[in-house]
């Protein structure tokens, strides 16, 4: 539990630092972003494994919802940090969580409410067919849903199969735009900036979290975090 | 803006250059030792000051480019003038620093103030003569090597052929010829095709002191690669790979990031390399790749404080390390304005402090000690009272004498051996 809280605090802190580093003079520092994402990844691994242990313990009690969730979450793929696993199963697990008591230490409820818009584009996004995103790791939800409705796009290798030639070209143009503008509110991560702003505005205004107490009502979802991790590293 | 960001002696030790966050370079020159005052060893006085880099704006990327000088490297002296390379995040410049102690007087067409003379008033011709003047030191930019780096330059290194040098950023290393500014060869490129697969970046690079075909570069994963430019044009494949297996008992959230190497330096002999990561300095033998031959703990008491150091961003500090002229002692900085020296032969180490209170002229520095828990002795400092805003990241050692330059934020300290 302590470990989980600590991991969560570190994750929140890392997100805050990532956000701040975009505002620094001299532009985004690749090395710094990489280090922040590494810390976030370790913290997330610890958090998820601690959570899994807790859930397994809870599974021994009569809680069908939890059991469903426990089964719904595959043995954590956080080890394969670059793998697209984590966001998808978390998203899938999220609806199951709705049944849980909100008092439980659970980042999911927060995430499901806000990310229901994000989930559709995010879930298929981590597939192997995902574009080598310079600036497209978190595509604008509206645009992404337009692009990704077609089921063939969900399948890995869709891009290579040449099924989406025109969309690829447009994305590349978007990518170039992303490359040219790695910074600024209207930069390559307009939606990322928006997500960060809306979700973390309260937290950001208040400065970095201090001390071990959890920040209630503002816990970053893991799905968003993994996307953030990729977004910041791949600029 | 006056925070010193790099310190470097030239090859004879006569000159000491510092670069700062405001893009300025200040060069100090050692006084000639006078026979009248033999007890007064040559002191360093300001020789030249100039603005090397200005803040720039990259319009294409909407990025401000900082003017902070990341590194200065001297070229060996080949004539009366001095040459140095200075770099910020994106542009390397070659500066010529020369003295002028004579000036021509007696021009025909203009008078001494430079005003043009009325041609109708000139009745005879004269030959201008050189007359002595007050010494003036001028710095002129001779070459500007720009637009070759997408990422931030972290190192430059002059080759032993004195014709080429390399500049390294997070993902690429370029080889330049001093005479050619509009192109460079890319010799290392570790950028993955898919940026999401990025796992490590280049943190420092240096040429071998004698072999002009050999260089090393360090990574954020704590590894060092030695490359031979004779093997291929693109040195993506290393000739040697230096890595120490991780100690599993030391794993924490931050293990990965504290293993990132912040500096790599060849010994003067060319036989060893020294690397600095967040908590240690390691000496490697070029002939042994699987582990360093020596490891020195700089401030191991910080290992349990990594979380707080992450919070206050200190964990990202990039400390440098230096060899003395004979490669027998190594030096690196720490917090609280402490710097550490390790004698490789006697295995003794010392912690000294660079501060105004302790540094009256000719005062002898007293060794300091950090107390790690338990009873704190008098004169010891406890870990919790260390000032983490006072960090010594940049130090330099005279190439042949025991004179060291220590940059403590915006102050430069120069220490010498005790004179009897």
TrEMBL record, chain B:
Family: Belongs to the phosphatase 2A regulatory subunit B family.
Repeat among keywords: yes
Organism (species): Chrysemys picta bellii
Ranges that cross the membrane: none
GO MF term (any one): protein phosphatase regulator activity
Alphabetized Gene3D superfamilies for the sequence: YVTN repeat-like/Quinoprotein amine dehydrogenase
Keyword terms: Repeat, WD repeat
Signal peptide boundaries: none
Taxonomy of the source species: Eukaryota, Metazoa, Chordata, Craniata, Vertebrata
Protein name (record): Serine/threonine-protein phosphatase 2A 55 kDa regulatory subunit B
PANTHER family: PROTEIN PHOSPHATASE PP2A REGULATORY SUBUNIT B
Top-rank taxon: Eukaryota
GO cellular component, one term: protein phosphatase type 2A complex
The keyword Repeat is annotated on this UniProt entry: yes
């Amino acid at each position: 539990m302590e470990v989980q809280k600590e991991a969560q605090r570190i994750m929140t802190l890392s997100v805050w630092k990532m956000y701040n580093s975009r505002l620094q003079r001299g532009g985004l520092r690749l090395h710094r972003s990489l280090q922040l994402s590494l810390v976030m990844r370790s913290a997330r691994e610890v958090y998820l494994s601690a959570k899994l242990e807790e859930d397994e313990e809870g599974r021994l009690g009569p809680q069908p919802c939890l059991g469903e969730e426990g089964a719904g979450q595959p043995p954590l793929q956080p080890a394969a940090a670059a793998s697209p696993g984590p966001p998808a199963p978390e998203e899938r697990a999220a609806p199951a969580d709705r049944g849980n008591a909100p008092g439980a230490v659970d980042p999911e409820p927060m995430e499901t409410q806000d990310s229901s818009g994000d989930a559709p584009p995010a879930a298929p996004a981590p597939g192997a067919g995902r574009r080598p995103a310079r600036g497209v790791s978190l595509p604008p939800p509206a645009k992404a849903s337009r692009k990704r409705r077609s089921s063939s796009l969900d399948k890995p290798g869709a891009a290579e199969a040449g099924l989406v030639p025109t969309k690829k070209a447009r994305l590349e143009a978007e990518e170039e735009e992303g490359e040219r503008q790695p910074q600024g509110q209207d930069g390559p991560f307009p939606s990322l900036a928006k997500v960060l702003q809306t979700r973390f505005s309260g937290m950001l205004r208040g400065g970095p979290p201090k001390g071990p107490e959890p920040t209630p009502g503002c816990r970053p979802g893991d799905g968003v975090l993994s996307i953030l991790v990729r977004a910041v590293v791949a600029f | 803006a006056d925070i010193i960001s790099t310190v470097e002696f030239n090859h004879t030790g006569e000159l000491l250059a510092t670069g700062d966050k405001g893009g300025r370079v200040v060069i100090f020159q050692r006084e000639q030792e006078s026979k009248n005052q033999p007890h007064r060893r040559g002191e360093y006085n300001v020789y030249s000051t100039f603005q090397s880099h200005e803040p720039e704006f990259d319009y294409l990327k909407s990025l401000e480019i900082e003017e902070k000088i990341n590194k200065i490297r001297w070229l060996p002296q080949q004539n009366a003038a001095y040459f140095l390379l200075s770099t910020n995040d994106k542009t390397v410049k070659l500066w010529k620093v020369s003295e002028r102690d004579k000036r021509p007087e007696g021009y025909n067409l203009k008078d001494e103030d430079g005003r043009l003379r009325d041609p109708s008033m000139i009745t005879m011709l004269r030959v201008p003569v050189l007359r002595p003047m007050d010494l003036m030191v001028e710095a002129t930019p001779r070459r500007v090597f720009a637009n070759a780096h997408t990422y931030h330059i972290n190192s430059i290194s002059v080759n032993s052929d004195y014709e080429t040098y390399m500049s390294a950023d997070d993902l690429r290393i370029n080889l330049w010829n001093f005479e050619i500014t509009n192109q460079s060869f890319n010799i290392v490129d570790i950028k993955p095709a898919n940026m999401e697969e990025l796992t490590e970046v280049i943190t420092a690079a240096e040429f071998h002191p004698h072999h002009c075909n050999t260089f090393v570069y360090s990574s954020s994963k704590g590894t060092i690669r030695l490359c031979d430019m004779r093997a291929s044009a693109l040195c993506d494949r290393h000739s040697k790979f230096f890595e120490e297996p991780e100690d599993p008992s030391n794993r924490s959230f931050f293990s990965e990031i504290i293993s990132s190497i912040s500096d790599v330096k060849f010994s003067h002999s060319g036989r060893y390399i020294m690397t600095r990561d967040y908590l240690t300095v390691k000496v490697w033998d070029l002939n042994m790749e699987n582990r360093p031959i020596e490891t020195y703990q700089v401030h191991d008491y910080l290992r349990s404080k990594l979380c707080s150091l992450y919070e206050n961003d200190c964990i990202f500090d990039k400390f440098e390390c230096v060899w003395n002229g004979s490669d027998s002692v190594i030096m690196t900085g720490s917090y609280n304005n402490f710097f550490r020296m390790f004698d490789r032969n006697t295995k003794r180490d010392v912690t000294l402090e660079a501060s105004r209170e302790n540094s009256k002229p000719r005062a002898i520095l007293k060794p300091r000690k950090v107390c790690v828990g338990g009873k704190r002795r008098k004169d010891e400092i406890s870990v919790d009272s260390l000032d983490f805003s006072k960090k010594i990241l940049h130090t330099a050692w005279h190439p042949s004498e025991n004179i060291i330059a220590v940059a403590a934020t915006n102050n430069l300290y120069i220490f010498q051996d005790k004179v009897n």
